[in-house]
Amino acid sequence: MLLERAKHLKMKIFCQWDHSLDFSYDDSKVEFIVDAPNGVVMEGYLFKRASNAFKTWNRRWFSIQNSQLVYQKKLKDSLTVVVEDLRLCSVKPCEDVERRFCFEVVSPF
């Protein structure tokens, strides 16, 4: 059910060097399963903006597990940790990105 729910989310992500992340989605309700047996609270494809000169958007498989935001290039690839502890992050609207419905996750690290 969580995977089905994640398929309906339309999210995008943008990584910046200042340890902040921009997301966007158009679903009015997001459910989290805190006690998931595998530690995965939410998962699905997002778009991650490259930090190189071209700033292209790349589709990646993201998940929130054990309070970390992680992604894989493909579903079976190894994990890359984006945010070590989401509980320490704050969220704010992001209006300077060309994508709609964006918000920024800011890490204190």
From TrEMBL:
- The answer to keyword Zinc-finger applying to this record is yes
Record's subcellular location:
Endosome membrane
Q: How does it sit in the membrane?
A: Peripheral membrane protein
InterPro entries tied to this protein: ACAP1/2/3-like (IPR045258), PH-like_dom_sf (IPR011993), PH_domain (IPR001849)
Give an example GO cellular component term for this record: endosome membrane
Stated role:
GTPase-activating protein for the ADP ribosylation factor family.
Q: What is this protein called?
A: Arf-GAP with coiled-coil, ANK repeat and PH domain-containing protein
